[in-house]
Amino acid sequence: xxxxxxxxxxxxxxxxxxxxxxxxxxxxxxxxxxxxxxxxxxxxxxxxxxxxxxxxxxxxxxxxxxxxxxxxxxxxxxxxxxxxxxxxxxxxxxxxxxxxxxxxxxxxxxxxxxxxxxxxxxxxxxxxxxxxxxxxxxxxxxxxxxxxxxxxxxxxxxxxxxxxxxxxxxxxxxxxxxxxxxxxxxxxxxxxxxxxxxxxxxxxxxxxxxxxxxxxx
Length: 217
Hints:
Layout: H1 2-36, H2 40-69, H3 75-88, H4 90-105, H5 111-125, H6 127-139, H7 145-175, H8 181-215
Helix pairs in contact: 1-2, 1-4, 1-5, 1-6, 2-3, 2-4, 3-8, 4-8, 5-7, 5-8, 6-7, 6-8, 7-8
């Protein structure tokens, strides 16, 4: 019975962690969108919010790890759950880092590129909301594997869409005749920071699907 009590505690902590991690990613996107909209005061405030939530999420992640190492869940699935949480934690980390990049380095985004940057940010950061639903489904009693598979597939589709948007915007940046090479490289770095979230999301989705399959064996 003790192992089931620990499993319940892990599930509760995981759901709390999800709220903090999702909040961090949302704040990170808000910071980037505010920056692209020219509101540096709002962008800075949202970046600080993302940083605070990332710290809180990190503390919660370590608590989940402690419970798993103390014997929650069967050994077959324990490592996979830990791997899911550890990989998922890269989302708030990347969100906070992306927001910090924009606030700290202040890349010059020309007016005619801002809408495209905003679209990439919305698509890439938005992957977190899909992951939140998938992970919540996993930690429900008798996790809904079909729902998890549907959501993880959606993450993959979104990642492909982000890749397409990234490529089109990259071409536009380097074909620009009004930007010098250093500006182009700075914009590409900013773009890389944004799309990194969708890459992480796809990795998390793969790990979650594996854990879900093992949990029903």
